[in-house]
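Q: Can I see a sequence and its folded structure?
A: Here is a first one.
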Amino acid sequence: MAEKESTDEEVDKPWKLILYDDDVHTFDEVINQLRKALGCSLAKAQKLTFKVHNEGKAIVYEGVFEECLRINSILQEIQLTTEIKG
């Protein structure tokens, strides 16, 4: 991955991927999809899922735009509600 080609904007202002709560998906569905998308532990996926549930949303990734897009596409495989902010 050629991170040297990233723009000054990406370096100065990391991108955030936000996951929003919904009334459609079960805890297990969200936890499993987060693990698939982030490659994180069960404990981290559970923590993020409970944060989304309790606060209505949570930042699940912060970093380069391309990685936000990659993770976002996996989360949206099951129609989770997400937003990328730069």
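Q: Show me another, different protein.
A: A second, unrelated one:
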Amino acid sequence: MTQRAVERWDEVPLDKVTEMVSRKEVDGGQLSLVQLYLKRGAQVPLHRHEGDQMVYVLEGALLCSAGGRTVTVSEGEVWSVPSGVRHQAVALDDTFQLVIRSER
């Protein structure tokens, strides 16, 4: 995506990753901001990033695992995942979240 000073979410294309997962992403170079929509039961498989990540749950709840620890992250909560840590999540409800990722 071409970087601009201002992005409008309603102009960012929706990427339907699967029947259960869709997202919109704005790439700012060193940071990415993602609106992520997960239907109940959707699974984000075990993976890792070479940058830090923060997940802010705006609606719904997730069961999240990282570094051998599992937590439930609910509406209004933020889950932080350090760079290089393997993590995964399962949507306990239909979930809407904002994800901030740093690039390394």
